[in-house]
Amino acid sequence: MRVVVTGAAGFLGRRLTARLLQTGTLDGRPITRLVAVDRVALPAMPTVRPHVDVLHGDLTDHLDILFAQPVDVLFHLAAAVSAECESDFDLGMRVNVDATRALVDAARTQSATGGPVPRLVFTSSLAVYGSTPALPLPPLISESTLPQPQSSYGAQKLICEQLISDCTRRGILDGRIVRLMTVAVRPGTPNAAASGFASSIIREPLTGLPATCPVRPDLRLALSSLRRTVQGILRIAEAERGTGPGRLNGPTPVNLPALTVSVADMLDTLRQVAGNAADLVTIAPDPAVEAIVTSWPCAFDNRRAAALGLRPDPDFLSVVRDFLADRNSVGQDEGPRGHDVPGPPLR
Amino acid sequence: MRVVVTGAAGFLGRRLTARLLQTGTLDGRPITRLVAVDRVALPAMPTVRPHVDVLHGDLTDHLDILFAQPVDVLFHLAAAVSAECESDFDLGMRVNVDATRALVDAARTQSATGGPVPRLVFTSSLAVYGSTPALPLPPLISESTLPQPQSSYGAQKLICEQLISDCTRRGILDGRIVRLMTVAVRPGTPNAAASGFASSIIREPLTGLPATCPVRPDLRLALSSLRRTVQGILRIAEAERGTGPGRLNGPTPVNLPALTVSVADMLDTLRQVAGNAADLVTIAPDPAVEAIVTSWPCAFDNRRAAALGLRPDPDFLSVVRDFLADRNSVGQDEGPRGHDVPGPPLR
Description:
Chain A is of the alpha/beta class.
């Protein structure tokens, strides 16, 4: 099985790649070749089982190489993040929409020319949902809630969802759409995601660094730890299609399960774990960040994810403990070298 | 005011253009120039008030000319229709998605370079909705119902909706999205729209020609006459934004009001109007057409349209009578020559 991961140098891509290298299988089949692609340079990877190819540069420049051999499963994680899409509309359209379109076109060319129908696992986002005065969000969000994005990032993710769903309906692609919650605590350094603070207000103080919280502490967030997010992506990638229990039914996107916590709860947990480190956080609301983040839903009906065997993190304390355990065992900058800490069983 | 109509040679474009030429105003302002563009050649138009420019060819080849002078209002009707998008995915993506994207880019360049923010009136479709076993449609569809297109045409319309909504939210475009019902009885000749039969089973027998009905007679359809459809497009184009009564609230698309009738009811009405002419219709279900048409919703909650002053046709008999009245006064091939029959007041 030949597996491609785009955005492989990101915090999700690194963990997913490490996990794939560690297990060496996907959907019960051995991964014979893994292709990791990112605009950011990736560290060299072991050439032991499975063989790894690292491609550095724009995804769209590498399509020929990616599809030179048949692609069985493609994890498309590469994206411009929310705040950069909001400040640069064209960048977001190019990176999030045009690159995905090019990938979808290459994938369906593969199936149209007699190759296998590629499984395309696309990471979408809770940012497809948004509240407006004319149509406020219901108290609990489910997959039947109308997406009404209030950020260009969310709109671009939704456009890609529609394209992938339609190609899946046509049978020219096997699309799997995973709507991610806000992932926290993310390892590494801050990026331009509007949700980045949900990680930095915990991660930075835990290493003795100051952090700024750009939202009011009563803001509630729908969170998922990195561990459970990667588990969710893999579960949906591997799920059998069908109508039975545990099967993936239709091309409808799946919302990953969410733990709902307030920023104040998160800071209380930080104090519980690390005492005065919580004083390193300065609350300084930023209207640009708040405009994006407060439009996102904070509470989800997790039943569809539960039917696929996915559970939210039990509480924020366990999220912080997972983060610390992972950091201590692999270093804060854990790369795709196969040193990932095994999480709970995937299925 | 400079107004552009794309798809101006289509059955909707001809009627809308005729109506604009007849009134000579839009939103209370005089139309000084009307630009009609279509791939299909348009008849010469009168150069009296307002001045009319006719452009023949692909929309994307004419963007420079369209935007050489500021565009105040742009009616974007040009589209590949449902059955052709289903049989040729790339054609649909090119005509429905890429051309709309190019138009949106040109429109936002106008506002970004100091010109007026163009009002872009986009005709979407009830085909954005679709029923699946995993998530069947509710009995009544409203604007808060989740679109789940089951045709590439519907998916492409939904993608454009998202792009236009996001640009409207950003203030770089004033997007108005009108979701059309199945328009019947359409003048002219059949096209490749899966819904075309809803017109041909009435129009053809009324002129003594045979017609084939590719769906079972118990199929129910959400219809709107051509008159009311054009009224709806103009009403939404002219509506003031805001939260008061009769205002357009948010960028949310508006579903035009629908009359729900079964094909059997339509044929009964035909018999009532034209007696044995109804015998010219042969029922011959076509799985490809049925797959598209039966996925569309047939009953709508018309309250949002009603708040904008729009009402569905009262019954199918009045739809047929309107069709006959229009045909008899302007000929079956009525063009944008300003001879349109006045309908009820627009507001």
